[in-house]
Write a structure and sequence with these properties.
The chain contains 11 helices and 18 strands. By secondary structure, it is of the alpha/beta class. The protein binds cytidine-5'-triphosphate and magnesium ion.
Length: 400
């Protein structure tokens, strides 16, 4: 209230972690209910009565187009405060620095906000700025939420190094508010010491400054990964889809027979590059079929020596991850193995429940059957074994 506060809306990143799902568009230019995310972020921040103006930072190459869009959007809603634009830099903190250079001399408090957080409420902005104004001992105020996962520190190989006490951990967000000279000094210090920070508070902390964490918002998600894109689409009915998979393995190899992740063993050995689980291969292909994900041979080529004897469960697991990213929720699988021998009835229930477990489905949503071809064809002649799988799934609308 007493101090002049300006927001810096950062919209100059490349959104690398999301590019695969956006046709190369940086995430801040994606739309939420018809408007670009950077505009949503700007609207939410500017609506706080404590905010006196905004600097929106765009990538150099996009700035002219973005300024045209801004002019059009301002005709619809002037936001009620002065708006200026700036050109971003290589790293996030370079963009903040460029944004700070565009601030008027009268600005006393800087509120830095990621445009990739379009859901931050206006009251969060007000709360953060008020907390800064009310606390003279503090250099900055940032929102944070308690973490629900246990967080591990790991080395480059993924080996756990330590487990910090969860009660003391916060996942921090933006908008972050700082006294202007403190933020400017911290950026100058970081430039001098070659320090890079993923948020601005880090830079002040490194300078020994006190930062207060206030309660953030669960919904204040930063759009970062492809799975976050669903948050940008209005909830609508998921689209049913199904995928079909078929696979054959010859007998006479050196892999013991496994089906659905269960070791069957016996005299009939399978010929395969992987561990040769024909049923999981058919199932994996059926899942890929639900989202046009290609086929197992393309994902795991049998010319790749690293995949020699690879576990079919691991391949399935990888494809389940791709399916989840594509917005696919598997709801049912029907599996059939066609083999003259061995007799599979004794294993049927075990195969069914294990397949259900691998798919995270209740066993009543998985069917398993085994049949012979009455001594006909290659299965009838005990030359090989085949499997077919049909998977039903729901695809969230808005994913592509
Ligand atoms: N940002 C920016 N300038 C940069 C890098 C990031 O203005 N050089 C902005 C982004 O546009 C985003 C915010 O900082 O709104 C948070 O950064 P992040 O989520 O890391 O976005 P990106 O850097 O764009 O994404 P990625 O790290 O996946 O490439
Ligand atoms: Mg980044």
């Amino acid at each position: 209230m007493k101090n002049e506060c300006w927001g810096i809306i950062l919209a100059a990143g490349q959104g690398r972690r999301l590019l695969s799902a956006t046709n190369g568009e940086a995430k801040q230019f994606l739309h939420l209910e018809g408007d670009p995310l950077w505009w949503r972020a700007a609207e939410n921040i500017a609506a706080s009565p404590l905010v006196h103006g905004l600097v929106i930072v765009f990538p150099a190459e996009k700035r002219p187009d973005a300024e045209n869009d801004l002019a059009a959007l301002l005709k619809r809603n002037s936001l009620g405060v002065p708006i200026v634009t700036a050109t971003g830099g290589e790293r996030r903190q370079d963009s903040v620095l460029n944004g700070m250079k565009a601030l008027p001399p009268s600005c006393e408090i800087i509120l830095v906000h990621d445009s990739a957080r379009p859901f931050a409420s206006t009251s969060l902005t007000t709360r953060v700025v008020l907390a800064l104004e009310e606390n003279g001992q503090i250099s900055g105020v940032i929102p944070g939420v308690a973490v629900t996962d246990t967080i591990k520190k790991a080395d480059g190989e993924g080996i756990c190094l330590e487990t910090p006490d969860r009660a003391s951990l916060r996942a921090v967000q933006t908008p972050q508010a700082f006294w202007r000279p403190e933020l400017e000094n911290a950026h100058a210090w970081a430039a001098e010491h070659g320090m890079e920070g993923t948020d601005d508070a880090m830079l002040l902390e490194a300078c020994g400054k006190k930062i207060l964490i206030v309660e953030g918002e669960e919904n204040n998600i930063k759009i970062t990964r492809p799975s976050d894109l669903r948050l940008l689409s209005p909830a609508s009915a998921p689209v049913p889809c199904c995928g079909y998979g078929y696979d054959v393995h010859a007998y006479g190899g050196n892999r013991p027979l496994r089906l659905g992740g269960i070791l069957i063993g016996g005299d009939l050995m399978v010929s395969a590059h992987s561990d040769g689980d024909v049923l999981l291969h058919a199932l994996t292909d059926a899942i890929l079929g639900c989202f046009g994900g290609g086929d197992i041979g393309r994902l795991f080529p049998d010319s790749d020596p690293l995949l020699d004897n690879v576990s079919s469960v691991a391949m399935l697991d990888h494809v389940l991850g791709l399916a989840a990213e594509a917005g696919i929720k598997i709801v049912h699988a029907d599996l059939t193995v066609i083999a003259q021998a061995p007799k599979l009835a004794p294993f049927a229930e075990q195969i069914r429940t294990n397949a259900a477990r691998l798919l995270s489905l209740s066993p009543c949503h998985v069917g398993f059957k085994a049949t012979t071809e009455e001594h006909l064809g290659f299965t009838g002649e005990l030359k090989g074994i085949k499997a077919v799988a049909l998977v039903s799934a729901l695809r969230e609308s808005g994913t592509n």
